[in-house]
Design a protein that fits this description.
The protein is mainly β. The protein has 5 helices and 30 strands. It has one domain: Pectate Lyase C-like (3 Solenoid), CATH 2.160.20. It comes from Flavobacterium procerum.
């Protein structure tokens, strides 16, 4: 009898996984316990400890304290900053507090599923851009001349150098961490901080189970380096959810981007993924590796109850932008409610070599006003014919969000896994 029960459970588990093979996966909803989709309504805590200036020796932040970041705080001198599970760190609104892990230093922020580490704002009415964000700098390769870059914001140039030759560099651990209301706008410049910046970071760094919500800039910014990242959540960012540039070699798995038609910026497109080779062409060494993103089981959606109306109003743009000289390999992912799903840079020639570098396989395109286009071109017959080939197993649907996802409108514990049982899909366009 025990063997029969075990076999039934195994078959049930396999069946559930098959149902969710596209988009974020898991036998249970891995968003439970550690995420927060309504951080506006959570109570603010009063700070008991101040973090300011440079942290030049090994330091541990304790759960029993509440810390406030005043101004730009740098972990320097190869020091290790350890943060206990459940610790709350507040970014000061007045001084736009920011935490920078400099090159050679480490952050050990390993929260727990039931006790995450939280970075948030100290304002009573919290808003995107209240404070800076978290910046982690490493010595892995980037594609700029000299293999070095500087995170040029309103930070100390001498303390924001990143890049090097160590692909296996270890900048520490970020796991079960929430970053809320970060992304301050930089004075005199037309851009904002990322919620989490990963620059020149190597593949020994652990980047898992991180939620960035209501960022005033991009949620996640990857600038060169070589990283593995999984179970990342970007929620209602003002700008991009995931930005990749400067020759980053990134393997992104089982991650989520939820956009809002009314919060997402439209200047550069409402993008979940922004994949580019560089930011400034004249600073780029084209003898080095260009940007490569291998993404699997990613869910990207607009949290809109009337996607067609929002598209007509110009509130929704493309989900994915692929720049020239870059590679994006995307598999088993969901793109739901965009206009269109994908745009390729106008300088990218549609030829065999480039199509081998830009792959979309076993995708689920849903409620998108067009699928894959070249920038500034309305005729995409060549791309539709290529990616619509049955060999790629891409699926197209026009199913309402409520029927597409398990329970996306659950206020406390939304579930964005794909619900194939109620979806009418076809392999045709």
């Amino acid at each position: 009898m025990k063997k029969i029960t075990l076999m039934f459970c195994l078959l049930l588990a396999v069946g559930l996984n098959a149902q969710q093979e596209k988009g974020i996966i898991g036998y249970t909803n891995w968003l439970d316990n550690w995420t927060e989709f309504k951080p506006h309504k959570t109570e603010s805590k009063d700070a008991t400890q101040i973090l300011a200036g440079n942290i030049a020796e090994n330091t541990k932040l304790l759960k029993r304290n509440v810390y406030i970041l005043q101004g730009n705080v740098y972990v320097t001198n190869n020091a290790v900053l350890t943060i206990e599970p459940g610790t709350v760190i507040i970014g000061d609104f007045e001084t736009k507090g920011t935490l920078v892990i400099t090159k050679g230093a480490q952050i050990m922020a390993e929260g727990q599923e039931t006790d995450p580490i939280i970075f948030t704002s100290n304002r009573s009415m919290k808003k995107a851009g209240d404070w800076g964000g978290v910046v982690v700098l490493g010595d892995a390769p980037i594609n700029k001349f000299g293999n070095l870059g500087s995170y040029n914001m309103d930070l100390d140039p001498a303390l924001t150098i990143y890049g090097g030759n160590n692909t296996a560099a270890n900048s520490g651990v970020l796991k079960f961490v929430r970053i809320e209301f970060a992304g301050k706008k930089v004075k005199g410049l037309d851009y904002s901080f990322n919620g989490l910046t990963i620059a020149g970071v190597g593949n020994k760094t652990v980047i898992e189970n991180i939620m960035v919500s209501y960022s005033g800039g991009n949620s996640f910014g990857f600038y060169g380096g070589d990283v593995n990242a999984s179970q990342l959540v970007s929620y209602k960012s003002i700008n991009d959810d995931f930005k990749f540039t400067q020759g980053i070699q990134c393997r992104l798995y089982n991650s989520l981007a939820v956009r809002s038609s009314y919060l997402s910026g439209s200047k550069d497109g409402s993008r979940c993924l922004d994949v580019k080779a560089y930011e400034k062409k004249n600073e780029t060494d084209f003898t080095k590796k260009s940007t490569l993103v291998a993404a699997a089981n990613i869910t990207m959606l607009n949290e809109s109850e009337n996607i067609k109306a929002d598209i007509q109003a110009g509130l929704i743009k493309e989900a994915i932008y692929v720049g020239e000289n870059t590679s994006l390999e995307m598999k088993r992912s969901v793109v739901s409610g965009f206009n269109p799903a994908v745009i390729l840079d106008s300088k990218t020639e549609i030829n065999g070599a480039n199509l081998k570098k830009i792959k979309f396989e076993e995708m689920f395109f849903n409620q998108c006003s067009g699928n894959i286009f070249t920038e500034n071109r309305s005729d995409n017959a060549d791309l539709e014919n290529w990616y619509g080939n049955s060999i790629f197993s891409n699926v197209y649907s026009i199913t309402d969000n409520k029927e597409t996802f398990v329970d996306m409108y659950n206020a406390r514990r939304p579930d964005f896994r794909l619900q194939l049982g109620k979806i009418t899909a076809s392999s045709g366009k």
